[in-house]
Amino acid sequence: MPMLLQIYCSGESTNSFHRYIYVFMCPNNACQKTCNSDNFRVLRCQLPRQNDFYGFERMLNFEQDGEVDDPLFDAEKYAKLCNVCGALGTKMCARCRCTWYCTKDHQVIDWKEGHKQCCQEGKVIPKPEDKDRFCAEKENSFLFEELGVELDLEEEREDTNSDEEDDDEIEDEKMRQELLKKAQNLMTKYDPKNEMNDLNECEESERDEKYFKFSKVLKRNCYQILRYNRGGEPLLATDHANAPSDVPPCGNCGSKRRFEFQLMPYLLSLIDIDDISSKVDYATVLIYTCSKDCDIKDFGYSEEFAFKQDFIFTGQEEQNYVDENDEN
Q1: Buried b (16+ CB within 10 A) or exposed e, 155-188
Q2: Residue range 318-326: average pLDDT?
């Protein structure tokens, strides 16, 4: 799985002062299943405030724009990172002797994705320490596009657009009522016995309240790729798909997990897989992490929980979906 997203989100304890969450996603169409998150993996990695790799202060600085150089950056260590995933590289390309890989599998991926041609044609391959570490140029087709995340407070945007949104909501409701009235008039005309006089009740019962709220947020924040609200409530995308009612406990310490952030649909369009022929899609992906930020053995990685919610049809299509899941 290539990495879809990583975010730095400092924990609440001294042992999780420096903390990263990594989200991986399989882009293979065969792995995409409705309301099933098996094609996602979430990993947590953290370090205490006093460590050999990061500074004593938090890395985030809301007053500084752009990338910030790491004061502890070591070019010698950086030169031995995997050219595919960025993990510590232990295997070197025998031909060019300047490209490193963490495993033979990633060496094969990079070989097929263009490194073979560079080596065979004798092209000068820049050493990793000579590359621009903040360059978003895509190394190979196995990876997603590399982009930065800009931070913003959603509350500020809610205040500036409140009057405009109220007007839009009034107009939407007026249009909905007009369409409903026309439909009722047509049914009265072609249904003399008025056997379908429960149209209004039916329409109201099937109204997807969570979707209307979700779409309202999307309209207001159309370029939003994630919503961060640790310990808060997620913004569910629809009433017609299951909500996360039984989030499994932390597999590392057994503590309860809590909601941390969710991925929004616009992210798919940024990584060039939001295509009509592709089945890679989601309404939202909810990420839950250990509530205690438990220590991880050897400062490694602990797997967390992802819940994918999709937009699904109501009626016969929804029934087919339920029946299929019952069989599985």
Answers
A1: eeeeeeeeeeeeeeeeeeeeeeeeeeeeebeeee
A2: 45
**Which pTM does this prediction carry?**
0.70
Q: How many CB atoms lie within 10 A of CB 40?
A: 21
Could you give phi then psi for residue 210, rounded to 5 degrees? -65, -35
Structure tokens at 252: 């590392």
Residue 226: which of 306, 160, 136 has the closest Cα? 306
Contact between 110 and 83 under an 8 Å Cβ cutoff? The reply is: yes
Burial class (CB in 10 A: 0-12, 13-18, 19+), 246: exposed
- Whole-number pLDDT of residue 296: 94
φ and ψ at 305, to 5 degrees?
-115, 135
Range with the poorest average pLDDT among 1-5, 19-23, 28-32, 323-327: 323-327
Q: What distance in Å separates the CA atoms of residue 239 and residue 233, rounded to the nearest whole number?
A: 15
pLDDT tens digits for range 52-103:
877 777 665 545 555 556 666 666 666 677 888 877 888 888 888 888 899 9
DSSP state, 175? H
State the pLDDT at residue 117.
79
Q: Do residues 92 and 99 make contact, with C-beta atoms less than 8 angstroms apart?
A: yes
> Can you list the positions of beta strands (E) in 113-215?
none
DSSP 274: -
What does the pLDDT read at residue 262?
97
Grouping H, G, I as helix, E, B as strand and the rest as coil, residue 155 is helix
**Residue/partner pairs of 158-164 with CB below 8 Å, 24 or more apart:** 158/220, 161/220
